[in-house]
Amino acid sequence: MAKSKQRPITRPFFYLGVAFVAWLLIPLAWKIAFKSTFDEFHAPIWESSHRINDLSHYWGHVSDSKNTLIEKGRDYSRIIVDANLQLKRRDYLKRELNDLRKIKAEIASLENSLNLDPRIQFYPQIARVSLRNISSWSQKLIINKGLNHGIKEGLGVISSNGVLGRIESVSNRSSTIELITNQAFRIVAHLKGDDRPITFRGAGISLGRKNYGIITDVPQDVVIPVNGSIEIVSSSLGGAFPGGLSIGKIKKLEPSVDGLFQSAEVVLSDKLNLINEVTILSKEKD
Question: In the chain, how long is the greatest CA-to-CA distance?
Answer without folding.
Answer: 132
